[in-house]
Design goal:
The protein has 131 residues and is an alpha/beta fold. The protein has a domain at 3-75 and 112-129: Rossmann fold (3-Layer(aba) Sandwich). 57% of the residues lie in helices and 13% in strands. It has seven helices and five strands. A five-stranded parallel sheet has the order 3-2-1-4-5, with helices on both faces. β4, α7 and β5 (127-129) form a beta-alpha-beta unit. α5 (77-90) packs across α6 (97-109). The protein is globular.
Length: 131
């Protein structure tokens, strides 16, 4: 089973209460060899937030240690437009274009599980880990 990896799981730091559970989940996913999947929108969001919050060294660590574990899909213009339509149809302030693009790609690929602490994944019918 392939697991989608969201920014919300990657960006947890030691001060976050979910950090230890998320770190254990990530280690388990790596140990079992389960395919990990994400999108270029997640990469852009993650890198921007890492750079702003923790600095360029954190971006370098992400690039060298985490990125190689992910199969990344690059969204097409068609996928971007579909995600934008979903965002506008949802008309919710706290739901992002990145979230909508993630849900769209996950549905297209038949991925049902997300490594995420963002509650929007559960709201859209995906299984979240850690639970």
């Amino acid at each position: 089973m392939t697991t989608f990896v969201d920014t919300s799981a990657i960006l947890l730091n030691a001060a976050d209460e979910e950090h230890s559970r998320a770190a254990a989940t990530y280690r388990n996913l790596l140990e079992t060899g389960e395919p990990l999947f994400s999108t270029n929108y997640i990469l852009v969001e993650t890198i921007a937030l890492l750079q702003r919050r923790l600095g360029i060294a954190a971006v370098s660590t992400f690039q060298s240690d985490i990125l190689p574990t992910l199969d990344v899909e690059w969204l097409t213009e068609e996928s971007h437009q579909a995600a934008m339509a979903d965002l506008l149809a949802a008309s919710r302030r706290r739901l992002s274009l990145v979230d909508c693009s993630s849900f769209l790609v996950m549905k297209r690929r038949g991925i049902t599980r997300a490594f995420a602490v963002d509650p929007h994944f559960g709201e859209h019918g995906f299984q979240q880990i850690p639970e």
